[in-house]
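debug: dumping io for the single-chain case to check the tokenizer round-trip. Nothing else runs in this session.
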Amino acid sequence: MTSIRTLHLAAELAPGREGPPDTSAARTVALARLAEAAGLDFLTHDDSFARPGLDALAVLARVAPETRSVGLVPTVTTTHTEPFHVQAAVATLDWVSRGRAGWRIAVSPTGAEARLFGRRPVPPAAELWQEAGEVAEVARKLWDSWEDDAEIRDVATGRFVDRRKLHHVNFQGSTFSVKGPSIVPRPPQGNPVTVVDATRPAARETAAHHADVVLIRAGSAEEAAGLRAELHRAARAHGRDPGQLRVLLSATVDLDTDEGGPGALAELIAGWHGGGAVDGFHLVPAVPERDLARFAADTVTRLRDRGLLRTAYEGTTLRDHLGLVRPAGQYATTGAGA
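debug: decoded output
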């Protein structure tokens, strides 16, 4: 009997382009609970220095205690930000969500964004994505700089941490250096899930090297399958196991039309996934309140009837949902970096 490949689904939470944005906590929490009831793996919340809006990481930190299972993945810009602060914030989200955090790495490519900070001119896109990869690398090192059992919390002796199990990372990148260790204990997932939007070719090498989940766009199943195979080859070239890489098609959906409606969307998802073109879909609703509700009520039911989608979460962390292993701490296993 042929086993059915796991279908992975995610959705974007940021307000759509129609009408004034609703930035209330109640709105975001309601959408997150709706997605959680539908069994989605994770939710993204877009963010950028190029436009006004709430900080995505802070928004999802607010959502975390109001949800129990769905993963939470804010966009985090690595340009003009301090890598040490970025990794600490993402690690904190993993703690407050009890192991459901990820981060979608983004860069700031415009002069207007650079002028907000006034630190440097904008480098070429290739350099921005090289820097983003270095941020991802040092983030993993800092998350691993605390061994899993470094915390003691011995009230009688007043000892909080075993300093022998904290490690300096001593990282030197092209634009920054970090000594470490982190100020936040190792996250529940070991490393929160790293997501890279590789819809632009400049991001693909960074995605293949560092991402757990890669978002792509394609006009056909054949094109998507080719991109997935390309990413797998590149991941293997970096010494990674392609089986630990999830490739999701990112698609804008408008379920207010008959073409691309809930039923047609279910057919598209089932067909592309069943043919091996992608591991799942990342849906960007045109109007989140409308489209996510219709997706949960109709499309999800059709996918469950096909046996493609979970009826309940089996694990507790985002890595569990995605079928990704919890990585061992690199310093604990090698003894390096003391």
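debug: round-trip ok. The chain has a mean pLDDT of 93.
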